[in-house]
Write the C-alpha cells for this entry.
Amino acid sequence: MNDVSYHVVNETDNARILELYRAAGWWEQKDDPANLQKVGKIIANSFCFVIAVKDDEIIGMGRALSDGESDAYIQDVTVWEAQRGNGYGKGIVNFLVNYLHEHNIYWIALISEPGYEGFYNSLGFSEMKGYTPFLMK
C-alpha cells in the first residue's frame, strides 16, 4: 500500500471521477457535458472527498458528508476493479475516518452494498440493528 497516496481534494479530474462512478454502477446517465460539472460540485461540496493515487493516476475515491460538527456519512467508496484486493479501499476508508476524527466527528455511518459487510466489519463498522435505511422515491 506504500505505492498509493491519499489526498483530500476540492477539485480533481472530473472525467476520471465520473469514470469511477460509472464503473461502480452508480452513474447510469447518458453522456452529457453537464455531468462533469455535476461531478465537480459533488467533489467541492463534500465535507471530505478523498482520492487514491497510484503512478499519478486516480485509482479510487470516497467521500464523507457532514455538517462538520456532529455526524458524518461515508459514501461512494470505490477502487478500480483491477486494483481491488490490494488494501486501497481500506486505505480510503481509514483516511476518511482519520480525517473525520481530526475534526472531532466520531459518529460515522454508511450504507453498504450487499456483499461488502465483511469489508466494513474489518474496519470497525457494525450493522445498525434495529434501524432501516430509507430512500425517497
